[in-house]
Amino acid sequence: MTDLELQKTAVEVRKGIVTGVHAAKAGHPGGSLSAAEVFTYLYFEEMNIDPANPKKPDRDRFVLSKGHTAPGLYAALAHRGFFPVDDLLTLRHTGSHLQGHPCVQHTPGIDAASGSLGQGLSVAAGMALSAKLSGDSYRVYTLLGDGEIQEGQIWEAAMFAGHRRLDNLCVIVDNNGLQIDGAVDQVCSPYPIDEKFKAFNFHVINVADGNDMAQIRAAFDDAKAVKGQPSAIVMKTVKGRGVSYMENQAGWHGKAPNDEEYAIAMEELGKAGEALCQK
Question: For 134, which of 171, 179, 211, 252 is 20 to 30 Å away at the CA?
Answer without folding.
Answer: 171
